[in-house]
Design a protein that fits this description.
3 helices; elongated; 44% helix; mainly alpha
């Protein structure tokens, strides 16, 4: 989907939440979900998302759009 959107000329970003996607896989991910607390809390995920948004807003590509 991202490739399709980018091919139409849009900038596309994806946030890889800790423990998911291409992040290092914690050992808890190999166990049943009921055996562990969530790997990433909502607060941590929200901070990660905020950091990604701040990075994008400061990027050269975004600055050209202003």
């Amino acid at each position: 989907m991202m490739d399709m959107i980018a091919a139409r000329g849009f900038d596309v970003y994806l946030v890889d939440v800790r423990g998911y996607g291409h992040s290092t896989r914690p050992p808890e991910m190999s166990q049943p979900a009921a055996a562990n607390k969530p790997i990433v809390s909502t607060d941590v995920a929200a901070r990660d998302l905020g950091a990604a948004i701040d990075y994008i807003l400061k990027s050269a590509a975004f600055q050209k759009l202003k």
